[in-house]
Sequence to fold (1545 residues):
Amino acid sequence: MALLAGVVMISSCHKFLEEHPKSQQPVDAYYSTIDQVQSAVNYLYNVGTGPNSFYNIGNLYDGTYAMTLDDLSGMANNVVAQNPSVRYYASLTQTGDNQANYVGSIWSAFYSNIASANTIIAKVGQSKTINQTDAAPLVATARFFRAMDYYYLVRMFGGVPLILQPYENLDNLYAPRASLDSIYTAIVTDLQWAYTNGNLADKPMGANGNQVSKGTVGGVLSEVYLTMAGNPLGKGAADYTLALQQAQAVLNSSGGYALFDNSAGTTPFDKLRLTAFDQGSEYLYFVEYNSAIQQSAYPEYTLPNTFPQTVPNSNLHVAYTLVTQVWTPSPTLLNMYDSANDIRRHEKQFYSSSFNYTATGGAPASISYPTMPYRWFDSTALFSTAASSKYASIYRLADVYLIAAEAANELGQDPTQYLEPILKRAYVVPPVIPAGQSDRRNLILGERFRELAMEGHFWFDMLRTRLYPDVDAAHHVTFSALVGHSNGRGQQYTETDLLLPLPTSEMQRNPNLKPQNPGY
Amino acid sequence: MGNARLHPSMGRKVLSVLLLFLFSIGFANAQTHTRTGHVTDENGKPLAGVSVTIKGQKNGTTTDDQGNYQITAEGSPKLVFSFIGYATQELGADQAGMVALTPNRVNIDSVVVVGYGTARKVDVTGAVTSVKASEILAQPITNALEGLQGRVAGVDIALNSGAPGGLASVIIRGIGSINSSTDPLYVVDGVAMTNIQYLNPYDIQNVEVLKDASSTSIYGARGSNGVILITTKRGASQRGTVVSYDASISEGNLQHEMKVLNSKQWLQVLAGGMANNSIWGAAPRTLDLSDTRLFNADGSPKYNTDWQKASTRTAVSNNHELSIQTRGENSSTGVFMNYSYNQGIMLNSDIRRYNVRFTHDAKLANWVDFGANVLVNYSKENEVDPTTGGNTPTRTMIEMPNIFPVKFPDGSWANNQVASTFSFLDAAENPQKVLLQQTNLNTRTQVFGNAFFNFHILPGLDFKTQFGTDIQNNQKDYYSPSDLINISANQKGVAQINSEQYSYWQQENYLTYKKTFGQHHINALLGASWQERIDETLGGSTQYFSDDYYRQYNLGAGSQPNSPASSYDRWSINSYFARVGYNYADKYLLTLTERIDGSSRFGADNKYGYFPSVGVGWVLSKEDFMSAIPAINYLKVRASYGMTGNTEIGSYNSLSTIGSGTTLINGNRAGSSSINGLPNPDLKWEKTAQTDVGFELQLFNSRIALEGDYYYKKTSDLLLNKPIPNSTGFSGVLSNIGSMSNRGVDVMLTTRNIEGRNFSWTTSFTANFNKNKVLALGNNNEDIFPGPYWGPVSDGFTILRVGAPAGSFWGYHRLGTYSTEDVAKGLAADPNFAYKAGEEKESADKYILGHNSPNWNGSFVNTFRYKAWDFMVDLQYSQGASIAQAFLFSSEDRTGYSNSLTTVLNAWTPTHQNTPIQQLRFAPDAGQSASFDDHWVANGSFIRGRNVVLGYNMSPGALSHLHIKRLRFYISGQNLFLIMSSAYKGYDPQSVSWNTPNAPPFGQNIEFYQYPKARTFTAGVNMSF
Fold:
């Protein structure tokens, strides 16, 4: 009996209790081949993380986070706004508490991207098996994403924890807020490395297999300099110079970057809409969609929810079961355009207010509605497949021209050569570029609103310049101080609004984040 | 009354000959009558082995497997019927044809199943409750948990859905865990079963629920949430063959409808909202009633469709159980077959289940016994889309406006987008069409069984080795056709197949030693156990079908396949256990238990956990000083303390691993990978220390039996997804942090109020009071918001906060609506935001608004017997839980997108300002204001008329010529009535809309529409040959 019991008890079972996962892979052995690193870099493009999540539609009624900032800027409205958080920004009633979850999601999405990028950068650096030259474009891409992540975080939240090494255990979890300077330094260091040492292809993103190119990095870096020159760092001339030089480097590159032109009977602005041109020469950075793999929901924002599902007297039927007005231009924004002279404001360029079709029997028919964005109008998806491949544009060459123009003007130089290509294609009769620096500034900044609408730039431009547009009846745009200005819906911006509240849940998790941003 | 004519078939010949032979020896020369009769339990189920003696004589007999006896006696003496666990009855021989015995709830000689063996009830120092098959089967059920509901104090079983095959939640003595499972451990014939939802209830012989540490710690590893031991029926208990057949047919109907607006009211509400457009700065709008398919020329609606009626039906179900049990010289065999077809009241929902079980027990030699048990279970379930938030039929049957018909006169289906004048509605498909055309099919196959050898080494010393296995294959098929709008029309049809296959085995070896030395009784156990489970899943889905012909049967026919998916998961447990039970003179009891468990799921240095317990008992009624109180015939007090553990977390949580998937790059899927989480090599067991003090009391010749327990459970080292700063890139790391307590009282009272020859009345009352409290959380005791999360309640419905119960609702107070006076006085404004009159007025801060588990719950069961009739009334009650009616978000706080509850007729107007219902607005233009507040929260207390049964037992004499030993007919009604708060607007205040198997229990009582529970009437027959 004792023997029997002994046999039972003695059997060693260490092996029996070991864990050997098969559908997941242990971290230690990973990041040892170029293919594994490529796979890790691919993740950075995922719409669930990093900058791409900022431009990806979550709940259809809520739009993207970028659209919520457009709401905050007063330039656009989310008419339905099912999520109270979206409404709070529109009415400037956001608080740390009522935003805990919403800003928490933004925060987490960027930091998950940062953690992945940190791991790639560190592991490749430590690797003895990976050829560093071959890996350079991958490391450059990781550094680009990490810079983008911090660039978005620092503009929204101010000083955030600056984490540049991967976490591999539970030590040092509670990182304090870093200074704005140190964060921008890290951003610039990453982007400069990627631009100079990254061995990235020098071509538009679409021509580069939809992957980050030298032009992508250059375009973003020029905007980072422009931001650093303005608020809140106020680096002024030194960084305007850097912004101009960096923008020039992209504009003068032989990589094939070019503004869309007016060819083959299609206006450049319609090309910005058409999926056939999504990989075109003007795009520097976009979120890719594909009707079969990852559908774009943007076209659902191009018709109002009152649009008839079955179009009267026709065979047309809206394929989507839901179309809705999540991003509608505000009167201020629409008023910035001279609807006669500004081609972008012509019907069915950037915006539309009617749907025209041929009724059964051949007579032309039309359905009118309040002005809606047309940039994402994908008629195949809307009336046939309900599955759109329309990319979401974030940075394109027009932005770089305007950056160069703005930087040159701020440096007291003539911005004409950078401004003209934009004006020439946008107007029936291009406006005369004024002589004074201040008038030019009004024109350039106004042009940014008109040209870069629907790409998520409004609020960041306002933060950078601390200026808010005012429009007169002749569509002339002037600017006055952002703080104290009305958002067009009856509320006034205060200093508090210049930063979003830190997520209170994150502050609870990490007491070193205190204090909360002022006013919250 | 002559000799029963015993048919020689079915092996009964042997038995009857044997019986006659025995009688002929005992009474060979007497002048005698042979008397026969039938003995049953209180529910009319036959009792085998009941001792039948003639009063004043030693001679007697016992009943056979059909409960029949035959005794030969002179004249008309009194017969004495006695049986372990039942009260002894004396009846005149002429009145003893039909005898029903009533149970002694606690009989000191009764035997209960405990972990790894049995013990006399008197020796048990822990809180163990036994439930007999007759109690479980007192109502027609297809789910064993349904039968267990309300039978055991301290076990809260919530049947959260009326769907056939709907999941039940089982919580024993409160929620004791946050991130890991709170399901008890189910052990069927010694083998752990993952889910007993699909076990055939007819297979159950008895159930033991182990609640305190003294009884559960022998299952240390997995005992924290309590243990439910199920013993199944096996071969016959006496030589011969018994054939039993039970059948029932039932009819279920919707118990009551939710109150929604009719067509005219809805159009008024819609117009009322549109008329308010100007308040919201929206363009003016009026109702367009021009569509002649929906409206008459005068604008009145043509239809007033009752969508709840259109989506439900009278459900007709049936159930058949056939069993054959035999016993020979050295072996016994049982074969049990069950077919049940259970129709749900929502269209096209049903479950068909086929069960076959085979048991064999044999005495192979004097020194070894063998037993085996194989169960094969196959079921096919048509489910109603169980997801939450979308336009599923459970939602659209409430929210579809009544102006739309089910079908137009031309036979075409309607949906809410058929009229362009109503295209502003939140696009929803016709619920009847979805129910009839969408496939949600679950096919489950289970092979479960065990085999053992029991070696008799020395007198009292046995060695048992047992191998058990549970192999399951679950497949979920989904097809949604290409024309279901807002479901699968955009995708032109969606087909999906997901399958999960898991194989579990366990091997256990243990020694048992039972010995009596004078007054000392010893019952000891020493053993070891190995368990392993491997779980593999496979799934694929496709969309864009050129037609709907193939459904899910040809995934290749869809032109846009999604990425296929598969996964692998393994865990293992290795354990050693020992227990010593000591009893001195049946007065003083001691149980010591120790279990050592190793789990693969924990960090390399923390795999093993140690779970000791101690239990003591004192049978006071055996003491001399108690004999002075004759009213007390049994009194035991007992106390226990011990540890149990919880390992029910996912595998690989202590490791840091890479998760891989794909990302869209340049028009193709490209492999992508990222780190899943931070490693925690320190991850270890969650432990629960439980103290239990209880007593068992029987009064007045056991006519009153009372059992009560007080317990205090403290769970520490909670397996908690400890929040860490998201700046690390991760939101949490599974850690052992924090603690939580449950304290409460279990009471079971059974009284035999009247015990007459013709009439008896028994009452049983169970109650559990439980109070849960979170004692500590992460490093900084941060609040944790464990969800469930939902778009409009993106911060989650619940909060974990130190000092409050787990499962507390977290939201605003609704103070009413803003009045015009508030607005005029500037009271309706935040620093920046001006509310409009008629908008909801909410507190500035959030509060705890109630909790989702009851304070008190239990049952009250009365059983009556009058001659051949039996009658039972079973009431269930629950007090103190709240229910969050999330459906008010779209059915009351929002109008213009869908139909609403009639409560919106009480909306705010300038002349009716004192109301919590907001002013009507047309949401497509004007949006809505809605947040999770206490207006959504209702008192979830209820009393349910759970089961009423009326049965009639045919007298055996009348049946003997049909060779039927027993025949009982019954009719019953389930869920006959429900008494609940009028503030609750849904179907049933015990429900879950956010629930997945193994999810933390915080979704309980949060409802965004539910599958309604039926009111069911059943007729059935029980017979045996």
